[in-house]
Amino acid sequence: MKILVCITHVPDTTSKINFTDNNTKFDPTGVQFIIGPYDDYALARAIEIKEANAGTTVTVLNVGTADTEPTIRKALAIGADDAVRVNAEPTDSLFVATQIAEHAKSVGYDLILMGRESIDYNSGVVHGIVGELLGMPSVSPVMKLDIEGTKAKLAREIEGGKEYVEVSLPFVAGCQEPIAEWKIPNMRGIMSARTKPLKVVEPKAVDSGVKLQQFELPPPKGAVKMIAADNVAELVSLLKNEAKVI
Amino acid sequence: MSILVFVESAEGQIKKTSLEAVAYAHALGSPVTAIALGAVDQGALEALGKYGAQKVLHASDARLNEGVIQAYTSVLVKAMQDENADILVLANSSLGTPVAARVAIKTGASLATNVTDLPETSSGFVVKRSIYTGKAFAKVELKNQKKVIALKKNAAEAKEVGSNVTVTPYAVTLSDADFAVKILSSEKATGEVLLPEANIVVSGGRGMKGAEHWGILEELAKTLHAATGCSKPVSDMGWRPHHEHVGQTGVKVAPQLYIAVGISGAIQHLAGVNSSKYIVVINKDADAPFFKAADYGIVGDAFDVVPKLTEALKAAK
Ligand SMILES: Cc1cc2nc3c(=O)[nH]c(=O)nc-3n(C[C@H](O)[C@H](O)[C@H](O)COP(=O)(O)OP(=O)(O)OC[C@H]3O[C@@H](n4cnc5c(N)ncnc54)[C@H](O)[C@@H]3O)c2cc1C
Ligand SMILES: Cc1cc2nc3c(=O)[nH]c(=O)nc-3n(C[C@H](O)[C@H](O)[C@H](O)COP(=O)(O)OP(=O)(O)OC[C@H]3O[C@@H](n4cnc5c(N)ncnc54)[C@H](O)[C@@H]3O)c2cc1C
What we know:
The complex is a heterodimer.
Chain A: E1 2-6, E2 9-11, E3 19-20, E4 25-26, E5 33-35, H1 37-52, E6 57-64, H2 69-78, E7 82-87, H3 93-107, E8 111-115, H4 126-134, E9 138-148, E10 151-158, E11 161-168, E12 171-175, H5 187-193, E13 198-201, E14 210-216, E15 225-227, H6 232-242
Parallel strand pairs in A: 1-6, 1-8, 6-7, 7-13, 8-12, 9-12
Antiparallel strand pairs in A: 2-5, 3-4, 9-10, 10-11
Chain B: E1 2-7, E2 9-10, E3 13-14, H1 16-28, E4 32-37, H2 42-46, E5 55-59, H3 69-82, E6 85-91, H4 96-107, E7 110-115, E8 126-131, E9 136-142, E10 147-151, E11 167-169, E12 182-188, E13 200-204, H5 215-224, E14 227-230, H6 232-236, E15 257-261, H7 267-270, E16 278-283, E17 296-299, H8 302-316
Parallel strand pairs in B: 1-4, 1-6, 4-5, 5-11, 6-10, 7-10, 13-14, 13-15, 15-16, 16-17
Antiparallel strand pairs in B: 2-3, 8-9
Helix pairs in contact in B: 3-4, 5-8
The structure holds flavin-adenine dinucleotide (FAD) (2 copies).
C-alpha cells in the first residue's frame, strides 16, 4: 500500500504572531517552525499502518520553499520513507491542493492523509479540494482509521459526538487526535533521515480566486478585574450589568 | 441573482450558526434562498423567513438525514444553478467546511472559510477571516464571480427582519458515488447545548482533579444554560468526551461568556477561546497565566467558589 502524508511547516503553537511590511508579510523572527500538529497525527497513523502492513510505503509532501526542508527531514526521521517538496510559496488552499493532486495523480496512492486543518490559515479545506480534484471521497475530521482490506472504517468527529463511516480505498482523510500518538524521532531515525530521498519538483500554475490584501492583529485585551472569592455576588452583578452576558 | 444559504439542523431545529448565515446573506443585499437537507421541523423551516430568507427549499430525501459530504455537495451545486446563485453562505462546521471546499471546486468559486465579518465592497469583495487560530486576521479578496463563504460563529447577528415563509420541497437526484462514504452509525449527545453553538461555556481543567468532580460544573452550566467544555489533558485522561476539548487542537469556541475553572491558560488552550466576548477565570493560583487573558478573575478553590457562584446566580434569577 502507498500512503501519502501532506504536511505543513507552521509556527510552533506557542508563537507570538507578528507582521511586517505594513501588515502584508508574516514576521518569522524568533519563530520556531514545526510539522502542523494535526499533520503530525496523520503522519503517526501512517507510520503505524506501515509497521502493521509489510510492503507499505509512506511518502511525505510539502508545498513550500527550501526553508521547510528541516521540517520535512523531521517527518523522515519519524519514519516516512521518502519526501517530495513542491518548490513554491504556498499562497492559497487551491494552489496547495492542486500541487498535491498533481503529485498524487503521477504516483497513484491508496491513501492520502492530511491534518484536519493547518494551524496558520486554519482553512480546513485542502483535503476536500484534493478529493474533488482527484474524484475521490474525503472524510474529515477523522479520529480513528482502520484499514480492512480494500476498505477502511473511520470515526469522524461531529458536533456533540462522532460518526462511524466506511469507505473504499483510495480516499483522502483529514486527521485529528486521538487517531494516533504523536511520534518523537529517535537517534536512528534522525541519522537515516539525512540520506532518505527528498525530491524537489516545480509547481503547476494555478489561477487562484483569492488574493491576500492585509493581515490584522486583534485589539489588545483590557486589564482583568479581580473579585474576592467570598464575594461571588459581585461577579454575578458585573456579568449582568457591565458585561450584559447573563 | 440570489444568494443561497445552506442551513444545518440539530434535533430538527436550525442551528444558531445557520441563522447567523441567513442574517449574513440578508445583509449582502440580494434575495436570499435558504436550503435545508434531511429531516427538519417544518415550523423551524418556515421561521427562516423571519431571519431574512425570501425562499426556503427543503430536500427531505431520507438519504440526507445524515450529513454525507459528497451528497450534500451535489445537492448544493445543483441548487446554486437552479436558484441562479453566485454566492453560497454557510456556517463553518464538521460538515459545512468540507462541503464548502468541494462546492467551491465544482462551481469554480472563490472560497473563504472562518469568515468573521461582512465583506467590504468598496473595491472588490473583501472578507476578513480568522487565521493563526484566532491570533490574527487576514483580509482576502474573493475575485471570482462565484463565491463560497463559510462563517465563523458571530460573523453576523441572527435577528428577526421578516416573517414566516412557505417551504418549497426540493427534489434531488443522487448517484451511488455521492454515497461512497457510508455512514454506519453515530453517537450524538442529545438535549445538551452544543459546545460550538453555545452562548455560554463552562470549562474545567486538570484543577478539577477528576471526572467525579464535574457535577459542580454541570450544575453551574445548567443554571446558565451553558455548554460544558474542558482542557486537552482532561479529555486525554478520559474525564470528559473528546468533543468537549477546547483549544488549538480541539473545538474553537466563540461564546459571549467563557468560564474557565482550574485551567492554567496554556497558549494552546487560549487559542481555542480567544474569540470569546468575556472570559471569567477561577483558579487557586494567582499567577495562573489565564488571568492575563481574562476579563474577570477570582483567585480561589474551585470546590468552594463554583457552588457559591451557582447559588448566587440562582438567587439573582
Ligand atoms: C508566506 C506565506 C504566504 C501566504 N500567503 C497566502 C495568501 O496570499 N493567500 C492565502 O489564502 N494563503 C496564504 N498563505 C497560507 C498558506 O498558503 C496555507 O498554508 C495554504 O493556503 C493551505 O492552508 P489551509 O489553511 O488552506 O490548509 P487546510 O485546508 O487547513 O489544511 C488541511 C491540510 O492540508 C495539508 N496542507 C495544507 N497546506 C499544505 C502545504 N503547504 N503543503 C502540504 N500539505 C499542506 C495539511 O495536511 C493540512 O493539515 C500563505 C502562507 C505563507 C507561509
Ligand atoms: C501542540 C499542542 C497542542 C495542544 N492543544 C491543546 C488544546 O487544544 N487544548 C488544551 O487545553 N491544551 C492543549 N495543549 C496542552 C497545553 O499546553 C496544556 O498542557 C493544557 O492546556 C493544560 O491543561 P490544564 O490547564 O487543564 O492543566 P494544568 O496546566 O495542570 O492547570 C491546572 C490548573 O488548575 C489550577 N487548580 C488546581 N487545583 C485547583 C482548585 N482546587 N481550584 C482552582 N484551580 C485549581 C492550577 O492552579 C492550574 O492553573 C496542547 C499542547 C501542545 C504541545
